[in-house]
Q: What sequence folds into this?
C-alpha cells in the first residue's frame, strides 16, 4: 500500500476558528479517506462553510492541525491546487465565454486534464458546447461548474451545497454523476449540504456539524442505528394521564408494563426516532441553547 | 507531460487574453462605447476652427493629442478597474485562485487586453482624425518614436494605478461613480481640451501632479510641429520631465498594485463571494 492509501485524504485535529470574540468552530476533528464520499451536514451558521474554506486553503484557522492530501492548506502550492477540485454555490463567472471554449481553456492549466469533449458528455452539456455561459439554465450552469471542478482530474472534490435550487430530475442526475466519480474514478468527495436526504443518498459517511462541533459522525446506517437506539414508549396510565419514557430496550419496557397491568395497555405506542428526528433534535437543542444564552445576557445588556 | 508551469502560465494567459479580446470585439455594447468616444472627439474637433494662441497650429490638433492622452488614461483608470471589479464580483478571480497558475495567467491576460485596447483606441483615433478632419500624425521617425514611448510609459503610469483602484473598489456600479468624477475633472484641467496656459496657475499646479497633463504634453510633442512648443507653459516640450513624472507614477502604481491585488485575491472565498452576491441582489447591482 502506498502512503496515500493509508493516510486520510483530509485530516483535521482540534481545529478552532475565532472571529473577534466569537468562536465559530470549537475543536473540529475530521478524517476523510481515499475514495470516500463524505457529507458535512449542518444548519446554516453551524460552521460548515468555515470548516470547508479552511480545508480549501481559503481561510486561516485560529488553531489546530489540518492536512489535506498530505499538505497544510495554508501552505498549498500550485501542484497541490492542481489535485483539488472546487464546485462552489455562487459562481457566475465567465458569462461571455462559450461552454466548450471555457472548458478547453481551463484544461490548459493542468498537467493531465480530462478531454473537454468527453467531459461535456459526462455532465450532459454536449448540446450546449457552443452556447454562451450566461444562457445556461441554473442546473446546466452547475453542471458546467462540476465539469470545471473535475477537468484537472482532482483527487479531492469539494461540493458546496451542489443541488440548491435543482428540480428533482436535475438533482437525480447530479447524484448519479457524483456516484460515478466516486465509484469509477476513486475521487474523494467532500459534500456540504443541509439536505439530510441528499447526504443519506450520496455519502459513505456523514458528519453532523452543529454549533461549531461535530456532534455525530458515521455511516448513514450507523447514525440511523444510533438514533433509533433510544426509542420512546408512550401509553396512557391507569389514572388516565398520558405517559412517555425513553429506553434503549423498548421491548422489555412494554413487557414490564403488560405484566404490571395484566391487561391491554391503552394507547401503547413505540416510536424509534429516524436519523432526521435526531438531526432536528440536535439542531433544536443547539438553537434552544443559543436562545437561552441570549436570554441570560439580556439583563446584563 | 506538458510544458513547465512557467511556459504553461504564459500560454494560458495569452490564450485567455486572446479570447477576452475576441469577446470584447464582439460585444456590441462595449465596442460602441469605445467607438462613441472616438466619434465624439472627431465631431468636437471638426467644429473648432481657431489656432492655438500664439502659434499657427490648429486648435483641433492640440485637442486630438489631448484626447488621445485622455483615452489612454481612461483605459487604465476607468476600463481596467471596472473589468477587475466586475470579474471579482462574478467569481472569475476566485476560480482562477482555485486553479494552479490561475492568477499569474489572469494578470498576463489583463495586460494583453489593456495594451490591445489602448493601442487599438489610439490607432483608431489618429487614423480616423487624419482621414476625416485632417488630424495630425507624427513627423518622421523621431515623432513616431516619441509617440510610442509616451504611450507606453503613460500606460505604465496608469495601468498599475488602475489595477490598485480596481482591487479596492467595492462593486462595479459604485466603482464607476467613484472614479468617473476625478478622471473627468482631470480631463478639463490637464490641458487636453484647452491650452494648458489658459488655465489659472493654481489649477495648473494641481494638474501637474497627475500623469494626464504629462501624457498630453508628450503626445503633443509627438503630434504637433516643433514650433507649437511656444504655447507650452515652459515654452518647451520638457520631455525629460514627462518621462520622469510618468516613471514616478508607474513606480508608485506598482508599489500600490502588487500588495493590493495580492490582498484582494487572497481574501476571495466562496462565502465572501456569496455574501456580496446577496447584497448586490438586494441593491440590484448585479444581474442574477
A:
Amino acid at each position: 500500500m502506498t502512503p496515500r492509501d493509508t493516510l486520510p485524504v483530509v485530516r483535521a485535529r482540534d481545529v478552532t476558528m475565532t472571529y473577534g470574540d466569537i468562536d465559530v468552530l470549537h475543536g473540529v476533528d475530521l478524517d476523510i479517506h481515499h475514495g470516500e464520499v463524505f457529507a458535512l451536514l449542518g444548519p446554516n451558521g453551524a460552521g460548515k462553510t468555515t470548516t470547508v474554506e479552511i480545508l480549501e486553503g481559503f481561510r486561516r484557522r485560529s488553531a489546530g492541525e489540518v492536512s489535506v492530501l498530505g499538505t497544510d492548506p495554508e501552505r498549498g502550492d500550485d501542484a497541490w491546487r492542481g489535485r483539488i477540485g472546487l464546485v462552489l454555490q455562487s459562481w457566475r463567472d465567465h458569462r461571455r465565454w462559450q461552454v466548450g471554449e471555457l472548458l478547453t481553456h481551463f484544461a490548459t492549466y493542468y498537467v493531465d486534464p480530462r478531454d473537454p469533449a468527453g467531459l461535456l458528455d459526462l455532465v450532459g452539456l454536449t448540446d450546449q458546447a457552443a452556447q454562451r455561459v450566461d444562457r445556461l439554465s441554473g442546473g446546466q450552469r452547475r453542471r458546467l461548474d462540476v465539469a470545471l471542478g473535475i477537468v484537472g482530474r482532482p483527487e479531492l472534490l469539494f461540493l458546496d451545497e451542489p443541488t440548491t435550487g435543482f428540480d428533482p430530475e436535475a438533482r437525480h442526475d447530479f447524484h448519479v454523476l457524483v456516484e460515478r466519480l466516486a465509484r469509477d474514478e476513486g475521487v474523494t468527495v467532500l459534500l456540504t449540504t443541509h439536505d439530510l436526504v441528499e447526504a443519506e443518498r450520496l455519502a459513505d459517511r456523514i458528519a453532523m456539524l452543529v454549533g461549531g462541533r461535530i456532534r455525530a459522525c458515521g455511516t448513514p446506517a450507523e447514525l440511523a442505528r444510533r438514533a433509533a437506539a433510544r426509542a420512546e414508549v408512550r401509553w396512557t396510565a391507569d389514572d388516565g394521564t398520558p405517559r412517555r419514557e425513553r429506553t434503549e430496550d423498548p421491548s422489555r419496557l412494554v413487557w414490564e408494563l403488560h405484566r404490571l397491568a395484566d391487561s391491554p395497555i391503552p394507547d401503547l405506542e413505540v416510536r424509534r426516532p429516524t436519523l432526521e428526528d435526531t438531526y432536528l433534535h440536535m439542531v433544536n437543542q443547539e438553537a434552544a441553547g443559543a436562545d437561552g444564552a441570549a436570554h441570560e445576557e439580556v439583563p446584563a445588556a | 507531460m506538458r510544458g513547465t508551469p512557467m511556459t504553461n502560465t504564459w500560454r494560458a494567459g495569452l490564450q485567455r487574453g486572446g479570447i477576452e479580446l475576441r469577446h470584447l470585439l464582439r460585444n456590441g455594447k462595449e465596442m460602441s462605447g469605445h467607438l462613441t468616444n472616438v466619434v465624439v472627439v472627431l465631431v468636437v474637433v471638426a467644429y473648432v476652427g481657431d489656432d492655438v494662441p500664439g502659434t499657427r497650429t490648429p486648435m483641433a490638433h492640440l485637442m486630438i493629442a489631448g484626447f488621445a492622452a485622455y483615452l489612454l488614461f481612461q483605459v487604465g483608470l476607468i476600463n481596467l478597474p471596472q473589468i477587475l471589479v466586475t470579474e471579482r464580483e462574478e467569481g472569475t478571480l476566485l476560480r482562477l485562485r482555485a486553479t494552479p497558475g490561475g492568477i499569474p495567467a489572469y494578470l498576463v491576460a489583463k495586460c494583453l487586453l489593456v495594451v490591445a485596447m489602448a493601442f487599438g483606441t489610439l490607432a483608431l483615433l489618429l487614423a480616423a482624425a487624419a482621414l476625416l478632419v485632417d488630424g495630425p500624425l507624427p513627423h518622421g521617425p523621431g515623432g513616431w518614436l516619441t509617440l510610442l514611448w509616451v504611450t507606453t510609459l503613460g500606460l505604465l503610469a496608469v495601468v498599475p494605478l488602475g489595477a490598485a483602484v480596481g482591487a479596492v473598489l467595492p462593486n462595479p456600479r459604485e466603482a464607476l461613480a467613484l472614479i468617473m468624477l476625478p478622471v473627468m475633472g482631470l480631463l478639463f484641467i490637464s490641458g487636453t481640451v484647452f491650452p494648458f496656459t489658459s488655465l489659472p496657475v493654481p489649477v495648473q499646479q494641481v494638474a501637474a501632479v497627475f500623469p494626464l497633463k504629462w501624457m498630453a504634453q508628450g503626445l503633443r510633442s509627438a503630434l504637433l510641429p516643433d514650433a507649437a512648443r511656444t504655447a507650452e507653459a515652459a515654452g518647451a516640450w520638457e520631455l525629460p520631465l514627462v518621462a520622469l513624472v510618468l516613471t514616478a507614477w508607474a513606480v508608485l502604481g506598482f508599489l500600490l498594485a502588487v500588495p493590493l491585488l495580492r490582498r484582494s485575491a487572497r481574501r476571495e472565498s466562496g462565502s465572501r463571494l456569496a455574501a456580496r452576491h446577496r447584497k448586490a441582489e438586494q441593491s440590484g447591482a448585479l444581474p442574477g
About this structure: Residues 291-301 of chain A have pLDDT under 50 and may be disordered. The longest helix of chain A spans residues 275-300. The two ends of chain A are 59 Å apart (CA to CA).
